[in-house]
Amino acid sequence: MLRFLKLISVAFALVAVSAVNAAERFYPDSAGQTVRCRAMIEMPRGAVSGMCLLRNDTTEVRGCIFNEFGITAFSFTYDTRRGRVKLEELAPMFDKWYIRRTLRSDLRELMRALDAGADGYINEKRKIKYKLIPLDE
Q1: What is the Cα–Cα distance from 15 to 27, expressed in whole angstroms?
Q2: What is the pTM of this model?
Q3: Residue 33, class by beta-carbon neighbours within 10 Å (0-12 exposed, 13-18 middle, 19+ buried)?
Q4: Burial class, 37, CB count within 10 angstroms (exposed 0-12 / middle 13-18 / buried 19+)
Q5: Tens of pLDDT, residues 85-102
Q6: CB–CB of 108/83 below 8 Å?
């Protein structure tokens, strides 16, 4: 019985370690590393889902979110030294000044959260949820 309990505790520890490793892989740590995952952005009036690519280019992380058909929703650059996000290419539905401002600040907080090991970010003020999900490869 004691042996069985030890086996179960080891199994739970392995599951916990694998969950931590899964959350850490959303942020590309080394230069040239690319992370691919599913992205979900949920808003009170709708949602955007698709694929997310993040690539580390030494001093900045470049990201792109596009839907299942290959249409780019937006692409951005996160400067790791200054902590700033620059929106580079936006679909017409996102290309409004108030959406740009919210998206820029939310992406900055999302990148900080990913660097800390989280898998998403929630904007409490506007009730927008950003979530990254690992791909089944």
Answers
A1: 21
A2: 0.80
A3: middle
A4: middle
A5: 999 999 999 999 999 999
A6: yes
